[in-house]
Amino acid sequence: MSQYHLNEALILGAVRTPFGRRGGALRDTRPDELLAAAIGGVLARTGLPGERVGDVLAGCVSQAGEQGANIARQAALLAGLPAEVPGVSMNRMCGSSQFAVHAAAQAVAAGDLDFAIGCGVESMSRVPMFLDLTLGKGDFRGFDGLHPDIAARYAIPHQVESAERVADAWRISRAEMDDYAMESHRRAEAARAAGLHAEILPLKGVDKEGAAITLAHDEGIRAAIDAERMRGMQPVFRRPGEGGVTAANASQMSDGASAVLVGSRAAAEALGIRPRARFRARVAVGSDPVMQLTGVIPAARRALELAGLSMRDLDWIELNEAFASVALCFVREFEPDMERFNPWGGAIAHGHPLGGTGAGLMAKMLAGLEHRDGRFGLQVMCIGHGMATATVVERL
């Protein structure tokens, strides 16, 4: 047996919390507590003792306030891991926790660690995007507070405007975006009602009145969509008739966390832990910072090339629905089997807790592959300022 095979990085477990609406059921739960729940949950499900974890790598976008001071370390301690287990926080914007999983796998494959947790969190209720502690409030400095030289060279717009430009470039109509959004909710509700989300860890939360509840599903999913109301919503930035991106056909701001346990084949076998999947490709790319959201196309192409697969080989395609126009431009380019494309809906319905989404979509995709007895899955995410991450996994 080769050393490469011994060090092969395998996915041993993957979980996520329910994704709560901003200001919803998880509004009183601190982000370090959310992440600690995910870390503890993945260890409980796999049976790995906490002292065997070599590192905790956490994605988080707004690393300020309760998400500052290296939230990976804080959450690891809250989860009860020994003080000897280190933690590091990283920010690749929306792809943060997908990249954290990549980094965990790379450390294991290199032989540096036997086990590592790639995870992520975002509480958009408690830590607004681009929180500015000097002002004590959130603003959009992530887009309009760029260094003057970068602003002069690229004129990077807000992501919503980039989503509009994607729709213009691929000739995606407002009606198509709204129809796609409604289908995302329909699929998400069907999966929820059928109890298919084996990856979700129920969490304690509060209802509108503050009474204690248990949240066991994604809070943003709408069982019924008012199509007339959706079609009547005004564009976020552009004038009516000149734009099509609305709050209804874009991802929801959310609270949530996720965790993926990665281990070497030899270490897992020694402990009797059954692996769930192996990595066939891990990719991060840069793309046009003005269009900003189109990196999913070259990222997917590169990942499939590295994996030696085609779109037809995939049993599950999980693309983060930051905006309906991003999903639809991907569909235009690759023409995937739509029964295999976001089969359980996406972020338009279940929400997008930024740093918590990447590992969460990985957990969701693995649950979906197991439910469908599929083999190959592709996860791909667009990232602000022009980047994308992609992962191809093979279920074992």
TrEMBL record:
<feature type="domain" description="Thiolase C-terminal">
    <location>
        <begin position="274"/>
        <end position="395"/>
    </location>
</feature>
<dbReference type="InterPro" id="IPR002155">
    <property type="entry name" value="Thiolase"/>
</dbReference>
<comment type="similarity">
    <text>Belongs to the thiolase-like superfamily. Thiolase family.</text>
</comment>
<dbReference type="InterPro" id="IPR016039">
    <property type="entry name" value="Thiolase-like"/>
</dbReference>
<dbReference type="InterPro" id="IPR020616">
    <property type="entry name" value="Thiolase_N"/>
</dbReference>
<dbReference type="InterPro" id="IPR020613">
    <property type="entry name" value="Thiolase_CS"/>
</dbReference>
<feature type="domain" description="Thiolase N-terminal">
    <location>
        <begin position="10"/>
        <end position="264"/>
    </location>
</feature>
<protein>
    <submittedName>
        <fullName>Acetyl-CoA C-acyltransferase</fullName>
        <ecNumber>2.3.1.16</ecNumber>
    </submittedName>
</protein>
<dbReference type="Pfam" id="PF00108">
    <property type="entry name" value="Thiolase_N"/>
</dbReference>
<dbReference type="Pfam" id="PF02803">
    <property type="entry name" value="Thiolase_C"/>
</dbReference>
<keyword id="KW-0012">Acyltransferase</keyword>
<dbReference type="GO" id="GO:0003988">
    <property type="term" value="F:acetyl-CoA C-acyltransferase activity"/>
</dbReference>
<keyword id="KW-0808">Transferase</keyword>
<dbReference type="InterPro" id="IPR020617">
    <property type="entry name" value="Thiolase_C"/>
</dbReference>
